[in-house]
Amino acid sequence: MAAITFKLPDGKRCTFKALEGKTLLEVAQENKLNVEGACGGVMACSTCHMIVDPEWIAELADSNQEEEEMLDITWGVEENSRLGCQIIVTEKLDGLVISLPSETKNLFDG
């Protein structure tokens, strides 16, 4: 298990124990955080956009081209933005800090 801290848009911090193999999207949803994941975690939307604390970005597996392309059209993206559906919890990520953006937009909604 790994402890993952989510910083909410209101400044509140919530730390949860996460099972290895889960995505950050799954961890957020299981703990009732306001992370939509409209596509169900198949990288077809950007509603699980998360911002990785800069000191942790090097600990994550590199993003692939498909994730980078989705981030290119994501609202409010930052240099250390990632999609929560693409970050898999490992023991190495114990202590990870993630910020949730104040707003997300599903670009595929009409």
Task: Tell me what you see in this structure.
- With 110 residues, the chain is α+β, with helices and mostly antiparallel strands.
- The protein has one domain (2-99): Beta-grasp domain (Ubiquitin-like (UB roll), Roll), CATH 3.10.20.
- It has two helices and five strands.
- The chain has helices at 24-30, 65-72; strands at 2-7, 13-18, 49-52, 81-83, 97-99.
- A five-stranded mixed β-sheet has the order 2-1-5-3-4.
- A hairpin with a 5-residue loop joins β1 (2-7) and β2.
- The model has no long low-confidence stretch (mean pLDDT 93).
Topology:
Elements: E1 2-7, E2 13-18, H1 24-30, E3 49-52, H2 65-72, E4 81-83, E5 97-99
Parallel strand pairs: 1-5
Antiparallel strand pairs: 1-2, 3-4, 3-5
- Main sheet: which strands, in order across? 2-1-5-3-4
Q: DSSP strand (E) fraction?
A: 15-25%
Derived from helix and strand composition plus strand pairing, the structural class reads alpha+beta
Helix content: 10-25%
Low-confidence stretches: none
Fill in the CATH topology.
Ubiquitin-like (UB roll)
Shape: globular
Could you state the order of secondary-structure elements as H and E?
EEHEHEE
Overall strand count: 5
Level-2 CATH architecture: Roll
Domain tally: 1
CATH homology superfamily:
Beta-grasp domain
Distance between the termini: 39 Å
By CATH reckoning, the class would read Alpha Beta
C-alpha Rg (nearest Å): 13 Å
- How many alpha or pi helices? 2
Main sheet properties: 5 strands, mixed
Compute the average pLDDT: 93
